[in-house]
Amino acid sequence: MTTVIGPRPPSDEDEPADGAAEPLPELEDGHWMHRATEFAHTSFGSVARRLPALVREAVALAWATSRRDTLASIGLNVAAGVLTTLGLLATTGVLRQLFAAGPTPDRIRAALPALLLAALAVTARGALTAAAG
After folding, report:
1. Burial bucket for residue 93 (CB in 10 Å: 0-12, 13-18, 19+)
2. 0.85 cut: is pTM over it?
3. Residue 73: band (very low, low, confident or very high) from pLDDT cuts 50, 70, 90
């Protein structure tokens, strides 16, 4: 009976017997991967300290490129955030009505206005997010 576990003999005469073949070029790390280990071990505190400077740099670059587009993007994203808050509050109203005491049809009818408000908020938020993009 042959052993399945163990080193495999070389299948080609060109391959060295010790298994130390040269890595294929397409399997080598790209030049952009040299700092991947450093980034993988970056702590939350380090990222939190660097974040304000990175945001400032990104906004400055966007501002230098197009002031109008930068203002529109920031304004539309803030409005989308407000609509997200409105949608969450409406969802709370829907759940409050659905979990209230009483017959089920009455609870659903009572939840409809808040449900419509939540649907409108989500739709408007999606439109603003798409416009900001």
Report:
1. middle
2. no
3. very high
